[in-house]
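ingest -> validate -> predict -> emit
validate: passed (alphabet ok, no gaps, 189 aa)
predict: started
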Amino acid sequence: MTDTAPPIAGRATTAPRDRTFWGFIVLIAVTDIVTKRWAERALALHTPEDVFPPWLRWTLTYNTGAAMNLSLGDWSRVVFSLIAVSMIGYLFVLYRQAAPESRATPAALGLIAAGAFGNLLDRLRHTKGVVDFIDVGTADWRFWTFNVADVGVTSGAILLALLLFNENDATPTPESAVSVPSPESASHD
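emit:
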């Protein structure tokens, strides 16, 4: 008797890589879309609403640039949209290259791709810019206002950096690959 059942005819089995990548894409993209539409309906432009004062409040803004209001003037919408499409395509290639049993790398790639997709939708939807509404800080200092897509990109990038750091840390260096003769083998010459 085997521990695993054979696949049911007509039903494709999916690897952990696929479930992880697409699961994060759906989770972040849908949450981003729903929360942005809520913010546009429920919040007044540039009017803070306290959630957990002073740490968290909702403040509806539109960002025509990119991260932290980086702007290319009139070209921002087109250039950042093209960058997002290119990045999503490249992330998909990286996802396909990940081992089928891997989970961490596809999670990082899915988070980044979903965030890029969410902000791309805003750029394509209207000229106002990307919808931002999450406002964190203190009474004296506020961080840039952001959205769920930005959380996806940032957390995915941090996870990917940690994975790459650990991968490089585990890679043997050329010095460690060279065998050093033991004192016993050196004395037999």
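The first strand starts at residue 49 and ends at 52.
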